[in-house]
Specification:
Elements: H1 4-43, H2 56-82
Length: 87
Amino acid sequence: MSPWGPIAVSCLLTYMIASLFLGIFENAVLALMTCYSVDIDLNGKDGEEGGKWGPRTFHDTIAKVGKCGDQVDEDASDDEKKGNEVK
């Protein structure tokens, strides 16, 4: 008897479960980012603190990611000023 039938069924089932889990995770992240954006729009950005609602650790993490993104943008701008090709 060939083992390929049960292996194929297991792979298909694993793929479907992983796809469902990642879809739910994607929706959760999208909902958090939407709530954060609305919070910033409604309550303003108080310095580095961020919005009024939500856990402080979440706001701190978003601020750190934003600072890293700003640094990457500045590096790209420096390359553009020097006339280097940006890929």
